[in-house]
Amino acid sequence: MVISLFTHHLRLLTSLLLANLLLLASVTHGTHLTQHNEKESLLKGINVFRQSQNLSALTMNYKASCFAKEIAKQLEGESCSQVTDPNSVPGVPDILKKCKVNINSTTDGLMLSVCVVNRVPNLVLNNFTQTFYGKYLKSSKFTGAGIGKEDDWTVVVLSTSTPAGSFSSFACRSACGSLCYLIVLLGLFLTWLIE
Ligand SMILES: *[C@@H]1O[C@H](CO)[C@@H](O)[C@H](O)[C@H]1NC(C)=O
Ligand SMILES: *[C@@H]1O[C@H](CO)[C@@H](O)[C@H](O)[C@H]1NC(C)=O
Ligand SMILES: *[C@@H]1O[C@H](CO)[C@@H](O)[C@H](O)[C@H]1NC(C)=O
């Protein structure tokens, strides 16, 4: 009896978990497929550039990506001819809160933004690697990157592996993407099982 109840719960847990995994997979791959492709090919291009400088590849930092995306949203609608200093974008405290980033983990990070009409991929990449921005992309200090884009704007946020530049939060110090979500879900189900 106890065993069959346990198996039943286990089966339920497995199917619920599977359903969540599928949901998660469809969310990530359905709606964001094209976005990911553009971001991933830009990151790839940056990493080819870094490789040519004998530097390690940057890995995608999801919290930095959230930050970059929100900054890009603030720049949305501004034309390239308008002189904008993205560093003066308002609402940064709100963005940090929204992305669950501790401000103290951003001080070593760096934000670079580029405006190219229609975000022509090669021009965007060259604007990052072939201008004075290249100097920053050549730095071995940076280990991760987050990418955001909106209209003509592409924002790259560089992160470090040190606490002062990791774009982490208190709650989840390591890179916290869907894995964290799964762990939380699993925790919820386990609590529910025990009850
Ligand atoms: C990268 O390393 C190779 C082989 O060690 C060397 O020939 C080349 O000059 C290096 N390139 C740079 C940019 O440091
Ligand atoms: C950031 O660091 C400062 C100085 O160490 C500290 O006073 C502040 O509370 C920290 N802020 C957060 C959000 O942790
Ligand atoms: C940067 O982008 C502009 C278009 O906004 C383009 O005209 C220029 O050639 C690009 N610069 C580089 C170095 O690719």
Automatic annotation (TrEMBL):
<keyword id="KW-0732">Signal</keyword>
<keyword id="KW-0472">Membrane</keyword>
<feature type="domain" description="Uncharacterized GPI-anchored protein At5g19230-like">
    <location>
        <begin position="40"/>
        <end position="158"/>
    </location>
</feature>
<feature type="signal peptide">
    <location>
        <begin position="1"/>
        <end position="30"/>
    </location>
</feature>
<protein>
    <recommendedName>
        <fullName>Uncharacterized GPI-anchored protein At5g19230-like domain-containing protein</fullName>
    </recommendedName>
</protein>
<keyword id="KW-0812">Transmembrane</keyword>
<dbReference type="InterPro" id="IPR059083">
    <property type="entry name" value="At5g19230_dom"/>
</dbReference>
<keyword id="KW-1133">Transmembrane helix</keyword>
<feature type="transmembrane region" description="Helical">
    <location>
        <begin position="175"/>
        <end position="194"/>
    </location>
</feature>
<dbReference type="InterPro" id="IPR045285">
    <property type="entry name" value="At5g19230-like"/>
</dbReference>
<dbReference type="Pfam" id="PF25884">
    <property type="entry name" value="At5g19230"/>
</dbReference>
